[in-house]
Design goal:
There is one protein chain. By secondary structure, the protein is an alpha+beta fold. The protein has one domain: monomeric porin ompg (Porin). 16% of the residues lie in helices and 50% in strands. The chain is built from 7 helices and 12 strands. The longest helix is centred in the first third of the chain and has 14 residues. 20% of the residues are buried.
């Protein structure tokens, strides 16, 4: 509401007040009345998703895998920074992965590497699917840099997914679903990505990519709940990624092509404890990932990122 004319005139004078009051006197509305409905359409920090994942590995096929994969804590925070009418949102996803291993002659649970990811993106909520796009930054830091260099990349991505793709939404959708409906039991995501090597000459190429040969990839992820027993929900889960990489610097895969791939599939058991949920899982990994020509001898010809043949056993908690 505008203050009275006398008070405004006393405070500011005629030359300042007339332009301010002109829309109100002439058209019958104030500046606030124009912008207030628009501003009400925005919501600051309307939602967030917490996920804490901890796992271990079994069936190490050689000494390198035994060294690299003992346990893997993985905290993940995703939040909606701002949303417009719950249709378009600015979302930030920040996560860390701590690689714990067992170095011969060293202590058990040695922290060997830390991976960091930040993914600012825009998400469009349509009636039957979500569409998101952004630039995801990932970097992989070895504690002992004498063995492996710092690897980082920036991935321009576009994805489409079901509304219940996030594990938080997937589980919460069953809270009021007594019929165990298919649209809640099945979730999916498909996506394409391009790894930035340059950006119109604006950014130094050395800041966009470091020691990463990846150039482009396609990925799909899905989950299907096949049984429910009281507060427990059992599901299948699968992920597949196929990509291209640059062989110019001597990077190779076992298939001797310019294509890499990785797959993960397994089973999950969701459970609820009050308003929050958790999930046990058992996953099997297969992959053929690029390895550099100057890898240390103890890698035994494996990519430092390979989990080929490993069984991952873990638990994830979420809000």
């Amino acid at each position: 509401m505008l203050p009275s004319m006398n008070k405004i005139l006393q405070s500011f004078g005629h030359t300042v007040v007339v332009p301010v009051l002109f829309p109100t006197l002439l058209f019958g509305f104030s500046v606030d009345s124009i912008f207030e409905p628009f501003l009400r359409s925005f919501d600051l920090l309307p939602d967030y998703y917490l996920r804490f994942n901890v796992s271990t590995f079994a069936f190490h096929r050689d000494a390198f895998f035994k060294r690299q994969y003992l346990a893997e804590p993985h905290p993940d925070l995703e939040f909606r920074l701002i949303s417009y009418r719950d249709v378009i949102s600015s979302i930030w996803d920040v996560d860390f992965v701590f690689g714990l291993g067992e170095v011969p002659g060293n202590t058990v649970f040695t922290v060997l590497n830390v991976a960091f990811g930040i993914n600012p993106k825009f998400e469009l909520r349509l009636p039957r699917l979500l569409i998101s796009t952004g630039v995801a930054h990932h970097c992989y830091h070895e504690i002992d840099k004498s063995y492996f260099p710092l690897v980082y990349n920036n991935r321009l991505h576009l994805e489409a997914s079901s509304h219940n793709f996030r594990i938080n939404d997937y589980f919460n959708a069953f809270a009021g679903d007594t019929l165990f409906r298919f649209e809640n039991r099945f979730s999916w995501q498909i996506g394409a990505a391009y790894f930035l090597k340059e950006f119109f000459g604006v950014v130094d190429p050395g800041k966009l990519n470091g020691s990463s040969p990846l150039t482009a990839e396609l990925a799909s992820r899905s989950r299907y709940a096949f049984h429910r027993r009281r507060s427990w929900i059992f599901s299948f889960r699968g992920e597949t990624t196929i990509g291209l990489f640059d062989t110019g610097e001597g990077y190779r895969v076992k298939s001797n092509s310019a294509c890499y791939w990785k797959q993960t599939f397994g089973v999950e058991a969701f459970f609820s404890r009050g308003a929050r949920g958790g999930c046990f899982y058992l996953l099997y990994h297969r992959d053929d990932l690029p390895r550099p020509p100057d890898s240390p001898e103890f890698t035994l010809g494996n990519s430092r990122f390979s989990k080929n043949g490993l069984v991952q056993i873990g638990m994830v908690f979420f809000n």
